[in-house]
Amino acid sequence: MKLLAPSILSADFSKLGEQIKEAEMAGADIIHLDIMDGRYVPNITFGIPVVECIRGITDLPFDAHLMIVEPEKYAVEFIKAGVNMVSFHMDATIHSHKLVDQIKSSGAKAGVVLNPATPINTLEEIIYYIDYVLIMSVNPGFGGQRFIPQTAQKVTKLIKLMEESGRTDIMIEIDGGVSRDNIRYLSELGINIFVAGSSVFRGDIAQNIKILKEEMTIYT
Ligand code: DX5
Ligand code: ZN
């Protein structure tokens, strides 16, 4: 399965509702929400009130990427606000297993995020419990950064670990620097969910989505 997840971090916030609608009409599959607290990452974005507000304008699944310390304090609140997928950075919490359990028992999919320098073997135990892995292909905090090529190698290592642990059903998401120039290559590596911020919201949203979706699709 190949899904495009526009990140509203690069949207024009004065027209947020309109731009989400435009992305939906153009074929976006998921809306990616970058939640930053100014502590885990050096930037602050938005929180639960904004999520509640935009929940009413689209039926697309919401994917919250929590770049916050102590994500266990807010994960369930985001789900109550209408988020369908929640991912967190394992080094931001002490009890990752417990948090995965809380997310899943609140009715959402649970994912863990790996920073560019975090190795795949960090997942060796948690892999039995999660629904998806988010591989960061830039250092988290800002949109519009350049893709770090080495991070693509982690996908192959992750697929190997998924096979060894019998969890080939796990979805692989990639986030950061995804563009029309690398999305086909990433798709061929086996990635399922492509987060795209600036490559969707800079310029013509509908046209950008059309090109990205065409490029990420693998015809068999
Ligand atoms: C970065 C965020 C990304 C960001 C991606 O910390 O996690 O989701 O919006 O933006 P682009 O696609 O512009 O690299
Ligand atoms: Zn993100």
Can you offer a commentary on this structure?
By secondary structure, the protein is α/β, with parallel strands linked by helices. It has a single domain (3-216), classed as TIM Barrel (Alpha-Beta Barrel), CATH 3.20.20. Helices cover 32% and strands 19% of the residues. It is built from eight helices and eight strands; from the N terminus they run E-H-E-H-E-H-E-H-E-E-H-E-H-E-H-H. The chain has helices at residues 16-26, 48-55, 75-80, 96-105, 153-164, 183-189, 198-201, 205-216; strands spanning 3-6, 31-36, 62-67, 85-89, 109-114, 132-136, 171-175, 193-196. The protein has an eight-stranded parallel β-sheet with strand order 1-8-7-6-5-4-3-2. The longest helix has 12 residues, at 153-164. The protein is globular and about 40 Å long. The two termini are 13 Å apart. The mean pLDDT is 98. D-xylitol-5-phosphate (DX5) binds at residues 7, 9-10, 32, 34, 65, 138, 140-141, 143-145, 175-178, 195-199. The site of zinc ion (ZN) has 6 residues, from strand 2.
